[in-house]
Write a structure and sequence with these properties.
Shape: globular
Radius of gyration: 24 Å
Number of strands: 17
CATH topology of the largest domain: Rossmann fold
Largest sheet: 7 strands, mixed
Strand content: 5-15%
Helix content: 40-55%
Number of helices: 17
Number of domains: 2
Distance between the termini: 48 Å
Structural class: alpha/beta
CATH superfamily of the largest domain: Dihydroxyacetone kinase, domain 1
Amino acid sequence: MTRLFNDPDEFVEDSVAGFVAASARWVRPVTGGVVRSTRGAEPTVAVVVGGGSGHYPAFAGLVGPGLAHGAVMGNVFASPSAHQVRSVAKAAHEGRGVLLSYGNYAGDVLHFTQAQDRLREAGIDCRTVTVTDDISSAPAHEREKRRGIAGDLVVFKIAGAAAEEGLDLDDVERLARLANDRTRSLGVAFGGCTLPGATEPLFTVPEGRMAVGLGIHGEPGIDEVDIPTAAELAQLLVERLLEERPDGAAPTGRVVPILNGLGSVKYEELYVVYAAVDRLLTEAGVEVVSPEVGEFCTSFDMAGVSLTLLWLDDELDRLWHAACDTPAFRRGSIDGRVAVAAADDDDDDDDERQAIAPASEASRRAAAVAARALDAVAAMLDDQAEELGRIDRIAGDGDHGIGMQRGSRAAAAAASRAVAAGAGARTALQHAGDAWADKGGGTSGAIWGEMLLDLGAALGDDDAVDAALLSAGVGRMKDAVMSFGKATVGDKTMIDAIVPFADTLRDRLAQGDALLDAWATAADAAQAAAEATAQLTARLGRARTHGDRSLGTPDPGAVSFALVTRTVLDVLKEDA
């Protein structure tokens, strides 16, 4: 388990501070992560990578000449917010465009896409290449749905080397996509990891058994078998990966094998496995080139390994072997670097995010109610975090409770500060939404942040908030989530609870119910719908691959939304 920490909620901040202090030769801190502390003689395309913390050396350990220009660092196992991505990308940008690259997870896609849109609006040419190397996470004909694991290293290295050569953004993007297309990975685990401050692992594997295809956040595997010998494990990994040889790759082609330890498997064990991997690849007629054995994408103390195969062509061969110099991955030497002076690299919309717009007295009163509601929601989620994590572990990665807890705490604190400064409803909820997205991370962080922003936009800073305006705001929240997350009723997501809540609230108010009565009926509808998700099979998100596992268990996002509606009702009753 993870034993060394101060305040678990400050674990990432403390870790980043130590990493920067130890790695000033390569990186400097900016809001949201780190960027290179040096530059070359000529500007290049900026390669910005990132994701949740807990996977070192992914992602910050791969920042430096010849590899990434910056890394966005989200909370533990949670995607960074769009604001963090923009901040790092702007600090890393050298005037020739930005390539964003990250593992293909729903929360990361939501946040990085938001950031890409904002960067383009600011006049920065920005492209994205998601990493989809994990063969266990979707069938071959749906490769675009696969998640990224240790193949991150391959795509980041190829993109960084292409940028170092001075290639333009079109070519850097093309080569990153080529690297992703020619990379395949498969992982296994013998036991789960424990997050800082947690009392039990995110998942467990029965004694003497091994999960095959398990994700780096603890997503369930596609199979479970008795723990094999090292040679038998190598055979399983090699055979399954060779079955997925990329289009255009010759059976006797050149392959870079990357044997990756996920956290607590020791190097000596990895070398025992690699001896068999090398032999099996050679026997299969594959030419083994520049193998790598070590830790490249971890999961705290997870007991597991993964094998990645990169099928080279001439371009990829050149770029894979190009020099690079980062805290965790080095090859050859790179000269001609100059130090970058520390600067204020905060995103230039920070002032706008923190500004308190003028507001009417009526709107300030509504903002105070919203702040009290968010305080109550944060307290409720503190109590429910463990249970929400438990039901999330059934077919997901088990971090929903932690993410909701962190996001709601940050939102409540931000709203309280805004109210104390005289904010109206729109501004207070905007601050709360930004804070929830920043600290909550992941898919739920993005969605709750967006919901609060849309609710605030509907309420405004001028008008008194009555039942009709509140219902319209809830309707905007529903519409925003359906558009933002692309889920529909029946996908086993929060949508299954928010749609009946918003629609019932609207209908009951239209029929003349008082706000408290209408809200209570709508909350009942949300709770019933959340409970009914137990009979659904997940069709979206991390649980999609293992949807049948969740039969009999409700969706944690729907459950948490229903709990929030109940908590807000109690606050509305107190204010009546």
